[in-house]
Amino acid sequence: MPPLRRCRFGVPGLDTILHGGLPAGRLYLLEGQPGSGKTTLSLQFLREGVRQGERCLYVTLSETAEELREVAGSHGWDLKGIDLFELSSVEEVLGEGRNQSVFHSWEVELGETVRLIKQEVERLEPVRVVFDSLSELRLLAQDPLRYRRQVLALKQFFAPRSATVLFIDDLTSEGRDRDTHLHSISHGVISLERFALEFGAARRRLQIQKMRGATFLAGYHDLSIQTGGVEVYPRLVAAEHHIEFGNEPTLSGVPQLDALMGGGFLRGTSTLLTGPAGTGKTTLALQYIGAACARGERCHVYEFDERIDTLVKRAEAMGVNLVRFMEDGLLEITQVDPAEMPPGEFAWNVFQAVQEKHCTMVVIDSLNGYLSAMPQEKHLLLQMHELLAFLNQSGVTTFLINPQFGLVGSMDTGPLNVSYVADAVILFRFFESQGRIRKAISVIKNRSGKHEDTIRELFIDSKGLRVGEPLADFRGVLTGTPEFLGNEGPLLETRDA
């Protein structure tokens, strides 16, 4: 069969989901509750048609032309090139001062409404049409059978004209058969949803319920309404993105640390840095970021917990100049507010950083903040698994920072246990020696190769990050209560002094 001619929607993420756009010359249903983004999405659909030199018509039975212009103005748009046909009052349908007594008023209103719409379409011969909304047509019809007949008549009217038609339904009318009827008539169905969380901004998402004779990316996809229109974030499918890359190791610039990892991390692997707060997890990740940027690689840090200014100053104190790398375009640090950014948008941002900006190293700090972005915990691990699979297949070295609950004593990983999806796990611990609080580092697993099974001291100061010799008299690290028993020989900072 010849390929379908696609009608681009004008929303990049939605066109990606639709594999290029809607099959042209068909009738589609765009449904969703009030506030889910239907009007804005419809205007973007028509504006894309104007950009392509197509005649576009917006038929409105629910909103006035002035209200539509206000919506467009809030996004910095004008409606130039879009024909607005407004039927928002009875007088416009029947004519002011006209009375009748033979037929029911709703019978005359419905017939006149449909007649005027057909007349306008025949006059303009548009390529794209938005009909807003079916709820008003349903109210005029009064009877479900009469309403279904009118919708079928409109479909048959548009069919020979090769117009791509978007019917809008706000789901405000009652009746369990409504969805079944409209879905069976429509060539495709796009459903928008809006739901509120216990805290934070309301979330929106969409799904393609059907699309006859065309492929699309199934499932739910997050969306947001911002100044400039609706943005859609396609669900990430790792299997569709794979590139060839070398297996050379990623080095930190600290020989002892690379030796601890058996020669460094391989590209295309993910590493979980876990331990209590203050043990050096973020600092170690920044050490790898600084070394990668110094080699000319592009890196991206997603910061959920710490302010960017604090992060930059902390790195500068240990000799890593992140500002210079940011000015050179090698490093980008994004402050993420989990109360405002849905997880689908975050995954899409990571996807674009890798695909468009060619990032080779990504740091997510921390998973606790990422968990806050997903109120349904049962879906978070699946999404994290898909995100890591995409990063691994793209040759990206990923660091996941997972603060454990508690500072000393027994540790708890919290509600999110992602250690099994990571390729390597590095454990950080506090320990006590000669009345001092010290830090220890050890490698729990490394799927990409061998690694040391020793526990070494970790020291961070103005000289940077340093790793000491194995602590042979160190025990209790796996129980969460590490203890150093030896008293012979100096520790790391004593030896350096």
Automatic annotation (TrEMBL):
<protein>
    <recommendedName>
        <fullName>non-specific serine/threonine protein kinase</fullName>
        <ecNumber>2.7.11.1</ecNumber>
    </recommendedName>
</protein>
<feature type="domain" description="KaiC">
    <location>
        <begin position="248"/>
        <end position="481"/>
    </location>
</feature>
<keyword id="KW-0418">Kinase</keyword>
<dbReference type="InterPro" id="IPR030665">
    <property type="entry name" value="KaiC"/>
</dbReference>
<keyword id="KW-0677">Repeat</keyword>
<dbReference type="InterPro" id="IPR014774">
    <property type="entry name" value="KaiC-like_dom"/>
</dbReference>
<dbReference type="GO" id="GO:0004674">
    <property type="term" value="F:protein serine/threonine kinase activity"/>
</dbReference>
<dbReference type="InterPro" id="IPR010624">
    <property type="entry name" value="KaiC_dom"/>
</dbReference>
<keyword id="KW-0378">Hydrolase</keyword>
<keyword id="KW-0808">Transferase</keyword>
<dbReference type="InterPro" id="IPR003593">
    <property type="entry name" value="AAA+_ATPase"/>
</dbReference>
<keyword id="KW-0597">Phosphoprotein</keyword>
<dbReference type="GO" id="GO:0005524">
    <property type="term" value="F:ATP binding"/>
</dbReference>
<dbReference type="Pfam" id="PF06745">
    <property type="entry name" value="ATPase"/>
</dbReference>
<dbReference type="InterPro" id="IPR027417">
    <property type="entry name" value="P-loop_NTPase"/>
</dbReference>
<feature type="domain" description="KaiC">
    <location>
        <begin position="5"/>
        <end position="246"/>
    </location>
</feature>
<dbReference type="GO" id="GO:0016787">
    <property type="term" value="F:hydrolase activity"/>
</dbReference>
<dbReference type="InterPro" id="IPR051347">
    <property type="entry name" value="Circadian_clock_KaiC-rel"/>
</dbReference>
